[in-house]
Amino acid sequence: MRVQINFDQCEGHGRCAITAPAVFRVDAEGYGQVAVEDVPDEERARVERAIRLCPKQAIAWVSETV
Amino acid sequence: MPIDPALLPFGINLLDAPLFTEGKAHEAFRLLRRERPVPWHPGTERLNGFWSLTKYEDILHVSRHPELFISSKGIVGAGLRDDGGYVPIRPGDGGISLITMDPPRHVKMRRLVNKGFTPRAVNAMEPSIRKVTNEILDRVASRNECDFVLEIASQLPLAVICGMMGLPQDVWPLMFELTNSVLGAGDPEYQSEVPEEVRGSGEAERQTSMGGEMRMLGYFAEIIEQRRREPQDDLISILLEADVDGELLTQQDILAFCFLIILAGNETTRNAISGGLVTLCEHPEERARLQADMSLIDGAVEEILRWTSPLHHMSRVATADTEIRGQKIASGDRVIMWYPSANRDEDIFPDPYRFDITRSPNDHLAFGIGEHFCLGAGFARKEMRVMFEELFRRFPDIQTAGPPDRLRSTFINGIKHLPVTFTPAR
Ligand code: HEM
Ligand code: SF4
User: Fold this and answer.
1) A61 vs chain B: nearest CA distance in angstroms?
2) What's the whole-number mean pLDDT along residues B199-213?
3) Hey, which CATH number is domain B5-421, 1.10.630.10, 3.90.870.10, 1.10.10.10, 2.40.50.140?
4) Mutation to test the A interface, candidates B109, B110, B369, most A Cβ within 10 Å
5) What dotted CATH number matches A2-62?
6) HEC string of chain B?
7) ipTM score here?
């Protein structure tokens, strides 16, 4: 499963990198970045959490059918 | 007229300020979370009835559906029955501010003003935040006691927000006084402008709040005019040049935003800092752990925010019939999200009644979440962090010297005065 951050919505609150540090990091400006796009199974739950808790709802799974 | 307790679950009246000021709210919320997590409050003769949300998940749900649960009908308290829900954060002349705006306009406006609040903007301010903090501490350094709220905690947010707006230093005390009368209006201490015999009443609260609001708007109207003539390098000048979809912001938009920012920036961070010191003094082991290793400060700040929840609530109005936790909510019904309850929710936080500066994860909702997530969260966190770093560096033995004098409010978890003692620093 792949995950992405919508940069229009991200305000750089950094919650993603705290919640799932193996998948997200913050860039030099403080905005969220996907470090590992293809999310390994063992990280899935943490990514789900980050999606739920991103204050600006900026993180989403990329639908595989597109 | 007092509310008939029989109409309230377990007799708990969440509109009763002493519940909060006397520290009984957490017990009440614990009971409600377990037995009646979405209770109805019938309101009063003056105030509308409302549903209370006490569970973390329910507050998350409401905050994340800003079309179904709107902010434009007011976000503070239950709202008055007789004037369509007067909202203190909405200037009386019709302007609507960010916090009482709904999508899609909110999304555009937020993107615009967010430019002043990016992580880069916050980091760029750090040196000046540290400098101001030390100037504040210098002023009390030769003494061995002070009022922590008036002389320290309130001074940093005031300086930061007034600095951002480019307000000259001689009006900062006036801004302090006016924000108190707008948001602390329910407390007789701030009702000095109304006749003595009505102080403490709902009417005194309304008059105090309106009076403060009018004076503040009058002042900002003047400043905006000045900036139109002579632009400066400040937030107001930036807003004067900004546009939404090619349209410049109106005078009302800018006034409303100034009004929001000065309140939101002052009346919250101050209490997070004061409440933080009280909490650390009440938990000497956690405090010692922090002072022995100040690299724990970020976690400590988050735990202080969870523990104190500087804002007790925000509210919303449903735009359609819906359900929360099986409870039917009708279109037009008001829901109040109680943050202190969410932040002690047993389903989310293991051992929620333990103050633990290394709690991880710590996904508290002190700043709200979703569409209206606190715009100033980055600044608030930075101010708290710098304040505690400098405070403990210079006054490592600072102690509370009496109980906090709490603000009478069901909205703001406020502290008006806090006596502290410390060894004078060189
Ligand atoms: C510890 C300090 C603070 C706390 C606990 C706090 C809390 C909150 C909360 C809970 C909301 C959500 C409102 C809602 O969902 O309806 C909010 C919104 C807001 N806050 Fe803060 N705040 C703090 C500091 C600040 C500061 C320092 C500023 C400005 C510099 C600020 C500016 C705002 C603004 C403009 C909004 C409205 C955002 C919107 O509607 O999009 N806050 N705050
Ligand atoms: S949590 Fe959301 S807003 Fe914060 S940095 Fe990550 S994507 Fe951006």
Assistant:
1) 17
2) 82
3) 1.10.630.10
4) B369
5) 3.30.70.20
6) CCCCHHHCHHHCCCCCHHHHHCCCHHHHHHHHHHHCCCCEECCCCCECCEEEECCHHHHHHHHCCCCCEECCCCCCCCCECCCCCCCCCCCCCCCCCHHHCCCCHHHHHHHHHHHHHCHHHHHHHHHHHHHHHHHHHHHHCCCCEEEHHHHHHCHHHHHHHHHHHCCCHHHHHHHHHHHHHHHCCCCHHHCCCCCHHHCCCHHHHHHHHHHHHHHHHHHHHHHHHHHHHCCCCCHHHHHHHCEECCEECCHHHHHHHHHHHHHHHHHHHHHHHHHHHHHHHHCHHHHHHHHHCHHHHHHHHHHHHHHHCCECEEEEEECCCEEECCEEECCCCEEEEEHHHHCCCCCCCCCCCCCCCCCCCCCCCCCCCHHHCCCCHHHHHHHHHHHHHHHHHHCCCCEECCCCEECCCCCECCEEECEEECCCCC
7) 0.88
